[in-house]
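Re: the multi-chain job from yesterday

Posting the exact lines I submitted so nobody has to dig through the queue logs.
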Amino acid sequence: MKQNLIRACTFGLLLLLASGLVNAQSADSLPSWNDSASKQAIIRFVEEVTTAGGPGFVQPAERIAVFDNDGTLWSEQPMYFQLAFALDRVKVLAPQHPEWKEKQPFKAVLEGDMKTVLAGGEHALVELIMATHAGNTTEKFAQTVKDWLDTARHPKTGRPYTDMVFQPMLELLAYLRANGFKTYIVSGGGIEFMRPWAERVYGIPPEQVIGSSIKTKFELRDDEPVLVRLPEINFIDDKAGKPVGINQHIGRRPIAAFGNSDGDLQMLQWTSAGEGARFALLVHHTDAEREWAYDRKSSIGRLDKSLDEAQAKGWTVVDMKKDWKVIYPFE
Amino acid sequence: MKQNLIRACTFGLLLLLASGLVNAQSADSLPSWNDSASKQAIIRFVEEVTTAGGPGFVQPAERIAVFDNDGTLWSEQPMYFQLAFALDRVKVLAPQHPEWKEKQPFKAVLEGDMKTVLAGGEHALVELIMATHAGNTTEKFAQTVKDWLDTARHPKTGRPYTDMVFQPMLELLAYLRANGFKTYIVSGGGIEFMRPWAERVYGIPPEQVIGSSIKTKFELRDDEPVLVRLPEINFIDDKAGKPVGINQHIGRRPIAAFGNSDGDLQMLQWTSAGEGARFALLVHHTDAEREWAYDRKSSIGRLDKSLDEAQAKGWTVVDMKKDWKVIYPFE
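And the result, structure tokens for all chains:
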């Protein structure tokens, strides 16, 4: 009896789906997007790959979409949010490190002298990351990130950093998932910095977050197994590292990729060079009033080569100012 | 109209599920298992973590189960199947490497002198892996693996290697998935060696395969992006590397782990030390007639420390000979 009921219902639902009466999610799944060429291109692509029997149909298992994080899903100005975390951690940890008062780049951080910090270049930033991200167990670090997000506030908006995500992109993530896509983050940011909150904020579970990492080491501490974070780079998930990270974690080539900077160029190249329907999109930060406006000359999130290639290859370029009705969920 | 039909059907199915009339999968999902303590322990654990409202209930998203591959899901004698692949590749590639005729360990491979090959120890094996697994693109390598599996035959059974998977473990994988588990491979074997067939054979998609790897490099070749496999170790997913690989790929601690050797010890420790209901199982190769019998003194798949720890901690130990009605699907 119950078997028959299940069968009848399943059959009925399948019929409805097959007959096209049930469209998974349609245009109004993107209410914060103006009806621009960008929005139309997204919808056209999703309809193409989900139309059973159509020339562009893609099996659900192959519907992999990859998203950069900084500048693509949330803001990245006036500095990467993870750097703000690292600077705050230097202040918290300073009492245990009296030597930092005399040692750069820590001295400059403690004195609030950001010019000197940034003048130290990549080397200084790596030192800051190592000193503030290593030395703990993976579980303690995740808790530290959560605690920081609970209290830290963005200098311009006064909001928690996780409020500064892009409402149109949240809708896009949900729209893709409603159409059978598996959504991944592929970020130059730290994998363990994003995982503690990516599921709550983006609906992306930890196993679908790919990022840069430091090495970890398995240890038994008083018979208790722990993973200890070491001050040693494991993987940089940026530029040519992004396709490498994608292959390592997913083992399939995505069919859609979303970025905003030159750090995403190779990810978009790798994604769009596959066979069949492909989609590549860049978020162009053009809204100095509601967010920030920057591109070819910015030191953060520089968009130069990728913008040229988008024009040459016909990738979709979102004009934040024109294409998005709202930027943040709290507006 | 269609909305109402969908709602009614969904509601009806939910009611059936909630009323317990539909049990996801029960004991007879494991028909190749004798009704032993091992089988009962598996079923007890699955019922515990899936009983809504019960003390051991685990949300589906956290139902992560990790499986070693060699010796746990398929056989590993008389040598790891990936080593058989590497040896065959040496023979295929030899015409392009005339120097191999005089150079160990290649010379010994070409002469069929396995004693000398194995006498070279780990260093010789790494050399063989590098020479046969690197130098190509990721896509060409996947095709090479598939082509080899189509034609290679196991020296004892004369069967394709992918036939030599354990029927009881296939049932266990399906049983766990039917109960909301996500099943992962966590193997010392090569991640790119397993991915091309793991979905077809085990129902495990590429993004749920974790293994050892060599480095890859993104390149544009005539404007075509490729990932090239380099002769350089990236990660060894064995022993203390297994929890590291699990954390890197999944970012959650599994609640169930399945292995067969000392290479799985840390994975089982890491898994079983988490909070709440946990399950750890070892496959003990005790059946010299239908498969192989080996444990504490075997150079392949040595089971010594893990066996002691299983006894001390009450982990489940499968006695292949007594617990499994059949070994392989083709029996």
